[in-house]
Write a structure and sequence with these properties.
The protein is an alpha+beta fold and 141 residues long. Helices cover 31% and strands 21% of the residues.
């Protein structure tokens, strides 16, 4: 019965760890993609492209972490706060689940190890298997 309780609690823990929004746990929201226009195209061995986008009514320009786009082409970018922007297709999307799962699996391993040590140390000793007594021949009548 105890093991069912532990499995149920672990299941609830997994659901909470994966479904709680990132901002509740203190993570910042991922940057939102913006449409930008290529202003200057750089060759793929010599430099990067320059893009321009509308940021709240003012035009901003930055270098794109990529190359080979033609002038006037529209690309979807993500401004990560630096002087270089990234293509929206190259930025991971979704919740950072990897760190949560790592921590959860570490806790489960510790719980399983502790439970095994508990059983090994405090479990009642089992009686050795008793072999059946050999059959005695019946006396002849």
């Amino acid at each position: 019965m105890f093991i069912l309780l532990v499995v149920g609690l672990v299941g609830i823990g997994v659901a909470v760890a994966l479904l709680v929004p990132a901002r509740v746990l203190g993570d910042e929201e991922p940057p939102k993609p913006v449409m930008a226009t290529v202003v200057d195209s750089g060759a793929c061995g010599q430099g990067t492209d320059t893009v321009e986008w509308d940021a709240g009514g003012e035009k901003k320009q930055a270098k794109l972490d990529g190359c080979g786009h033609s002038k006037g082409e529209t690309v979807e970018i993500v401004n990560t706060g630096g002087e270089m922007v990234s293509s929206a297709a190259s930025v991971p999307v979704g919740l950072p689940v990897g760190r949560r799962l790592t921590a959860l699996l570490l806790c489960m391993a510790a719980l399983a190890g502790g439970f095994y040590a508990f059983l090994f140390r405090y479990a009642p000793l089992r009686a050795p298997a008793v072999l059946p007594a050999p059959r005695r021949p019946e006396p002849a009548a």
